[in-house]
Amino acid sequence: MIKRNKVFIAVSLDGFIADKNGGIDWLTETPNPEQSDLGYANFSANIDAIVMGRNTFETVCGFDMDWPYTIPVFVLSNSLTKVPVEYAGKAFVVNGPLTEVIAKIHTLGHGQLYMDGGGTVQGFLKEDLIDDLILTQIPVVLGEGIPLFKAMSKRLDFELVKTETFIGELVQSHYQRKAVPIN
Asked: Does pTM surpass 0.85?
């Protein structure tokens, strides 16, 4: 089984994933008359499961739509003990050290994981558990908000795999974690 932890997320030009009030309306303000999925279908075609934080899970549950995922969703939470009944069998609560969480998900047969949500991505980056970062820059400067990246104790090096432009304004860059040299 191939094991990779991937991030697919939109950021403002100044590196925020949500505005100062946690709002994400600015993500859909760029006109998209052709309804491009911005590469999401290609990305998700190679994903076995999603790992997201409780806040992201609650945000998705609050959308006025049916459950959008056909693969298992693992919700990282120390306070949530079970998912609401309507999501039973679709979403599962996990907790503990991130390396143990990943190992448990792998034992269930899921190797290609999509990490979603600011705190989740930050936690996995801090533990050096992200293999791919796919960042879509939205041409807006928010000035303040929820940052994608926070202070880290060590540097992580990535290399550019490719860059694409979507709907004439959005720049999507795919980075892969450089192999860590063995000393």
From this structure: yes
Give the pair of three-digit tokens for residue 131. 């293999």
Q: What are phi and psi of 29, to 5 degrees?
A: -80, -20
Give residue limits of the domains in the chain. Answer: 4-18+36-177
How far apart CA 32 and CA 47 sit, in angstroms, is 25
Query: 3-state class of 24 per DSSP?
Result: coil
pLDDT in tens, 7-17: 999 999 999 99
> CB of 145 within 8 A of CB of 19?
yes
Amino acid (1-letter code) at residue 37:
D
Q: Which of 31, 68, 59 is nearest to 146 (CA)?
A: 59
User: Does domain 4-18+36-177 correspond to CATH entry 3.40.430.10?
Assistant: yes
Query: Residue 99 has which token pair?
Result: 């390396």
**Strands 4-12 and 112-116, how do they pair?**
parallel
